[in-house]
Write a structure and sequence with these properties.
The complex is a heterodimer of chains A (60) and B (449). In chain A, 63% of the residues lie in helices and 0% in strands. By secondary structure, chain A is mostly helical. Chain B has 15 helices and 17 strands. In chain B, strand 16 and strand 17 form a beta hairpin. Classes of the chains: A mainly alpha (60), B alpha+beta (449).
Chain lengths: 60, 449
């Protein structure tokens, strides 16, 4: 994810979510969002069987 | 010589907290009057010759996310400081009281449990009793520090991604993260409903087992709590490991550990005669799923705080909460689906192994304020990375006894003793064997030596 894309996403999402953050806070949130995107990337890439359903309460 | 009364023991505990805790900052509240009243009730039972409950007169304290009747449950946050006091005790606090234990206070934590270092900007950092310039770990840092400093022999904490096992490792005490759904969470402030566990800390494995036994039992007020009968483990601690199939976790668990952490796991394995090494399949994906679920559920839970009180929230975690609150729903659903798939992979591992050994943390306690974790060939942000080795385990709810491995002249570090779901009994057998071998014990820190 490009930093500019993250910044644009964070700006738009903060507005939609009603988060009244100033520019400095949005910049810090964008840094965290990029880190979260990096962690999420392999989850989005791994093939999953169709029956891997998100559980309401996951039995251990 | 006359045995000390409970009230005498509790007064000694309160005096020790007054004397030692200013250097540690483990306690956020000392519940003196309640402690004296509970102690007097135990002494009255003893005076009548009535049967005493199993934890009669044992002082304990709880992470400040547990409801205590008449006290504000701050959950490490300044924005909750003016909230209404709790109307009743949390289920586990009520069970401790029924077991005769005496509550002496509430303990420090990272705000809303989102952290591994208890560097709380509102209430100050909690310091490690083995070196006050270092972190006690988190988010249950007050629990680890209070038990390590022998201010209390027992404490109750929470573990979403490692928040019992990380401070237990860095402070050199015993801890238990039970199977997800084993212990009721009713009356505690949630963080991530899909992953939250509660559990005890102790200065000995026997005390840990006795405390856990007192906490067990179904509770329909926690929707995730399994309606299982009590399965006591206190009798398992001295049973030994004969017949158990044991292995050390390698691969991912070697890659994200310093030499010291790997050495601690190796020492434990040698004491147990374990030579077999296995890999937890897809551990990195499990950790990633836990990370994303945590950010999204935590962010959503605190969205109102983020909207209305951003400046009053913890600077070390509010930006991470906000990033999670605005993450695409597809990421969250995908992470939950990966958890479901990962669970099936992990379950297969237990077809031919009973208990797994792995380091609890990548390193011993880092200095307060440290930003980076240096591992062979990689440099990682320290604060989230202290949970690298705990998150793949709690992601699928496996029970873990956190075992302290001290070393002369060095900081302690811990290992995880991991069993299949609902087999806490097996983890306690191995933990007890490690204690009996002498390699595992909670060493006395300089602050109390």
């Amino acid at each position: 994810m490009r930093d500019a894309d993250a910044t644009a996403y964070v700006d738009a999402a903060c507005d939609l979510a009603g988060l009244p953050l100033d520019a400095a806070a949005r910049g810090r949130v964008a840094i965290q969002f990029v880190r979260l995107a990096a962690v999420a990337a392999p989850l989005l890439a791994v093939p999953l069987p169709d029956d891997a359903e998100p559980p309401a309460v996951l039995p251990p | 010589m006359r045995a000390a009364s409970t009230i005498e023991r509790v007064e000694a505990t309160l005096a020790a907290i007054d004397r030692v805790d200013p250097a540690l900052n483990a306690f956020t509240r000392v519940t003196r009057e309640r402690a004296r009243a509970e102690a007097a009730a135990i002494d009255a039972l003893r005076a009548r010759g009535a049967p005493l409950p199993p934890l009669a007169g044992v002082p304990y304290a709880v992470k400040n996310l547990f409801d205590l009747e008449g006290e504000v449950t701050i959950a490490g946050s300044a924005v909750r400081a003016e909230a209404e006091p709790a109307a009743a005790d949390a289920t586990l606090v009520a069970r401790m009281r029924a077991a005769g234990a005496v509550l002496v206070g509430a303990l420090a934590m990272d705000e809303f449990a989102y952290g591994f270092t208890t560097e709380n900007s509102h209430y100050g950092p909690t310091r490690n009793p083995h070196d006050p310039q270092r972190t006690a770990g988190g988010s249950s840092g007050g629990c680890g520090a209070a038990v390590a400093a022998r201010l209390v022999p027992l404490a109750l904490g929470s573990d979403t991604n490692g928040s019992i096992r990380v401070p237990a490792s860095l402070c050199g005490v015993w801890g238990l993260k039970p199977t997800f759904g084993r212990l009721s969470r009713h009356g505690s402030v949630p963080f991530v409903a899909s992953l939250d566990h509660l559990g005890p800390f102790a200065s000995s494995v026997g005390d840990l087992a006795r405390c856990y036994d007192a906490l067990q039992g179904p509770d329909p007020r926690d929707p995730a709590c399994a309606q299982r009968a009590v399965e006591p483990v206190a009798g398992e601690v001295d049973r030994g490991t004969q017949g158990l199939r044991l292995a050390r976790l390698g691969g991912y668990f070697d890659d994200f550990a310093t030499d010291r952490a790997r050495a601690a796991a190796g020492l434990a394995c040698r004491a147990l005669g374990v030579e077999r090494v296995v890999e937890l399949p897809a551990a990195a994906l499990g950790r990633a799923a836990a990370f994303v679920v945590t950010a999204c559920e935590g962010g959503a839970l605190h969205l109102d705080d983020l909207r209305e009180r951003y400046d009053g929230l913890e600077p070390l975690s509010r930006d991470r909460f906000a990033a999670g609150a605005i993450a695409p729903a597809a990421w969250y659903v995908r992470a939950q689906r990966v958890r479901a798939w990962y669970r099936t992979q992990v379950a297969r591992l237990f077809d031919d192994v009973d208990v797994l050994i792995a380091p609890s943390t990548p390193c011993p306690a880092p200095p307060l304020g440290a930003e980076w974790l240096e591992l062979p060939g990689q440099r990682l942000p320290l604060r989230p990375s202290l949970g690298m080795l705990t998150q793949p385990i709690s992601c699928v709810g496996l029970p873990v006894v956190a075992v302290p491995i001290p070393e002369d002249g060095a900081l302690p570090i811990g290992v995880q003793v991991i069993a299949a779901p609902w087999r806490e009994d097996l983890a306690f057998r191995v933990a007890g064997a490690l204690a009996a071998s002498g390699v595992a014990h909670s060493s006395l820190p300089a602050v109390r030596a």
